[in-house]
Structure formats: C-alpha cells, structure tokens
Write a structure and sequence with these properties.
One of its GO terms (biological process) is signal transduction. It catalyses: L-seryl-[protein] + ATP = O-phospho-L-seryl-[protein] + ADP + H(+); L-threonyl-[protein] + ATP = O-phospho-L-threonyl-[protein] + ADP + H(+). By secondary structure, the chain is of the alpha+beta class. It has 14 helices and 16 strands. Bound molecules: adenosine-5'-diphosphate (ADP) and magnesium ion. Adenosine-5'-diphosphate binds next to strand 2 and strand 6.
Length: about 450
C-alpha cells in the first residue's frame, strides 16, 4: 500500500491547495496544507515574470533570504519559496484570527491598554526586522493579522518592494493607491529611509487603533498629501496626554527629528506593562530554494497538478467486504476489546491526520506527527503507565484510506475508554457506508 494522498485538490510540490484567503493588488493568497506534516500554511502566489523583471529584484531576493532566517513571534514566518514555469510561490505561516482591523470595524476602537499591547508587539516586530536589515515600507491594516490566541503577526515583511514600482521618473509608487499610512518623505520620494518610514506608519496604526478612524483622511488626494506633509491631525479628547505626546513624536513630518525605536522603547506610555517576547534564534536555515527561484534554475521547478478523481468502484468493493467497518472498533463483548483497531475514511489523508490531532489533544494527549504516522502519548500515568497509541494512515485506493490504531503502551481498559471518546470525535471522517455500532457496553 502506498501512502500517497489522493483527492480532487490541486497540488503544488508537497502542498495541497485550498481556498483563496485573500487577494492583494499584486498577489493571491491561498490556504494550503503540507501533506507530509498536515500543517496549514498560506501560499502567496506571484507572477514570475513580474517579480524577476522587477527593478528591485536583488533587494527582494536579499530580503526574502533574511525573512527565511527570522523567527519572531510577531512576524509571519516565511517557510520556503518555490517556482513553476510562470509563478512564484511564497509559503508562509498561516494565521486564522483575521485582520486586526476587523476588530475595529466590528467592535469599534480599542481601549488604550489593548491598543498599547498591539502597538508593543508591532514595534517589537518592526525593530527586530530592522535590526536584520529588512524594512516593511507597507505597514497597513491588511498586513496586521492575528493568530488564534490573538497575538499580532505582521505579514509581508521584506515583500513590500514587490508591490512598489519605480516609475520612469524615479518616483516610488505604492500599488494600493491609499497613501493614508505612508510617511511624507515616501510620498515626496526624497530617497527615504525604511526605518523612519516604518515608524511613521506605526504611528498612524496606533492612532487608528485608539481613535477608530484615520488621522489623515481626505477624499481628495492632493488635500490628503498636504495634510500628511504637514502632519496636520488632531487627537481625539479620549486619548491620554501621554499617548497624545507619543503620537505627536511619531507623526513628525521630518524624518530626521522623528522619534526613533530606541526612544519609543524608553517612552513611559509605551513601557507600561511591556514584556518583550522570548524567542529562540534561527537554527541552520537552508537558502537553496531562494537561490534556485531567483537564479531561475530549472532544476527545482514545481508544477501544479490536479489530483486523480475518486474511484467509486473501490468503495463498492470494500463496502461489500464488510471488512473495514467501524464495528471492528468495538468488539461485541467488552472483554474482547483489542489493542489494535482500524477504520476506513474517504477523507484525504492530511484531513484525517488533522482530525486525529484535533481530537486527541483535548483528551490530554501529546501528538507527534511524522509522515502518515502519529504517536499519541497520554499526559497522565495510568495503572500500567502512560497510555500511548500509534496510528497510521494507509491508502487503500484513491480517496480511500485505512487508519490503523494500535495501543503501544498503557492499560487496555484505558485504551478502550480513550477510543470511545476518540471515535466520537472522529465521526465525521469515518466512512459510514454501514451502520455504526457504538453500543459496546455488552
Ligand atoms: P495585502 O496585504 O496587500 O492586502 P496580500 O496579498 O498580502 O495583500 O494578502 C491578501 C489577504 O490575504 C490579506 O489581507 C489577509 O487577509 C490574507 N492573508 C495574507 N497572508 C496571510 C496568512 N499568512 N495567513 C492568513 N491570511 C493571510
Ligand atoms: Mg499582505
């Protein structure tokens, strides 16, 4: 039996592509799953010609290489890059908490303490990337995402050069067309400094978080530019005076006198409740993928593949055999509960894997995945030691998988109890062509 994954999805390399998460002005972002590990990722899909002909291609390559090395809790991780004949794929950490600004759109402005917590995370991420020579240049609400714990994750660090086009006249243009977050010197294009420009954008973001509206907002673009050039804004009355002072120092139209990050880190308003994050630095990171993509090496090209369709004959065949029904899981008599059991599923292997993980975790199991094997280890010691279970997913036929569960340690009765809760959690993925016998009480 092979362990390939089958389904009706598109595959790119080891990733199975899912729905579109969003679309920016120059890229599409797709949800995907790594079929080897079951991990969720986001893949940014770019037009290869556009990227490789870009005036800043060397800088883009350098920044993407650096981003692969960066492991900061508030920065979306860049896992790898791939290229097909026509596209470049940037594989990113997937976060599912939505955009920070959805919160403001849905619930209005934030309390000062909450705004400060996000601002602290933002400044920390920005400071760290700057220290590695990577600038954002396009800090805006769409690039501030939240993970499922509500932790801020800044996306598109090092990628923003991609969205900028240097026109014939040498002026830098942001592709999105809304300059509300852009620093005056960037708009004037006086050969600006990425550091101070990013700080300005952080100030606009902080203002929006606490006010619920933009500091500079004009329907007329010329009027908007003028307000930004003069830093012509007013803080609402509910801002504390120390917050007002800090924002005034950030939204200084002169980049040379604008507050710096070391100064922000020393600011009283900023420092309140500040806990810089703890994180490990990078391990050995391989940059072969980045080099291959940017050197246009033919060797590593990936292709988009549509997977084989489902074969119904296989189902019919198996359904007649009665061999792999859920009945196997529960022997008619309690005493006969085996230490090994199996079920079949029509779900793709990676979905089965994720479901097993999702189900086992709340039951107090540590989950270790490798290829199509999962080891579950109980966190409590039972009568006969910790309960541990090994599972493996096999492909029987296209889109028909056999899942095997074996107790590898611990008490059989505990295994039985575990299996009862476990199988009810897995109901959705277990193939229900036959009646399911859940009554094992005997
Ligand atoms: P932009 O940043 O210009 O809006 P992008 O192409 O970067 O455009 O992203 C489009 C949208 O896709 C984002 O606004 C966001 O909602 C979503 N998105 C981007 N990256 C991720 C990610 N790593 N995880 C989840 N969603 C993402
Ligand atoms: Mg983005």
């Amino acid at each position: 039996m092979s362990r390939k994954v089958h389904g009706s999805h598109t595959r790119i390399g080891k990733y199975e592509i899912g729905k579109t998460l969003g679309e920016g002005s120059f890229a599409k972002v797709k949800f995907a799953k790594n079929v080897d590990t079951g991990d969720s990722v986001a893949i940014k899909v770019l037009d290869k010609v556009q990227v490789l002909r870009h005036k800043m291609v060397e800088q883009i390559k350098r920044e993407i290489s650096t981003m692969k090395l960066i492991k900061h809790p508030n920065v979306i991780k860049l896992y790898e890059v791939m290229a097909s004949k026509t596209k470049i794929y940037i594989v990113l950490e997937f976060v599912d908490g939505g955009e920070l600004f959805d919160k403001i759109v849905n619930n209005g402005r934030l309390k000062e303490d909450e705004a400060r917590r996000y601002f602290q995370q933002l400044i920390n991420a920005v400071d760290y990337c700057h220290s590695r020579g990577v600038y954002h240049r396009d800090l805006k609400p769409e690039n501030l995402l939240l993970d499922s714990y509500g932790v801020l994750k800044v996306s598109d660090f090092g990628l923003s050069a991609l969205s900028q086009q240097v026109r014939e006249d040498g002026l830098l243009h942001t592709a999105c067309g809304t300059p509300n977050y852009v620093a005056p010197e960037v708009l004037k294009d006086k050969g600006y400094d990425g550091t101070t420009a990013d700080i300005w954008s952080c100030g606009v973001i902080l203002f929006v978080l606490m006010a619920g509206y933009l500091p500079f907002d004009e329907s007329n673009l010329i009027a908007l530019y003028e307000k930004i050039f003069r830093a012509d804004f007013t803080c609402p009355s509910w801002f504390s005076s120390s917050a007002k002072k800090l924002i005034k120092r950030i939204l200084d139209p002169n980049p040379l006198t604008r507050i710096t990050i070391p100064e922000i880190l020393e600011n009283e308003w900023f420092k309140k409740g500040y806990r810089p994050p703890d994180f490990e630095s990078e391990e050995d990171v391989n940059l072969d993928d980045v080099n291959a993509v940017f050197n246009e090496s033919e060797e590593y090209l990936v292709t988009e593949k549509k997977e084989k369709p489902v074969s119904m004959n296989a189902f019919e065949l198996i359904s007649r055999s009665r061999g792999f029904s859920l009945e196997n899981l529960f022997e008619k008599q309690m005493g006969l509960v085996k230490r090994e059991t199996q079920f079949t599923s029509q779900f793709p292997a990676n979905e089965i894997m994720s479901k097993i993980e999702e189900t086992a975790k709340p039951l107090g199991f540590n989950v270790h995945k490798q290829n199509y094997k999962i080891k579950l280890r109980g966190d409590k010691t039972g009568r006969k030691g910790r309960l541990s279970v090994a599972t493996e997913v096999f492909e029987v036929a296209p889109s028909l998988h056999l899942v095997e569960l074996r107790k590898t340690g611990g008490d059989t009765l505990e295994f039985y109890k575990f299996y009862k809760s476990f199988s009810s959690g897995l109901k959705d993925v277990v193939w229900k062509s036959e009646a399911i016998t859940e009554d094992a009480s005997g």
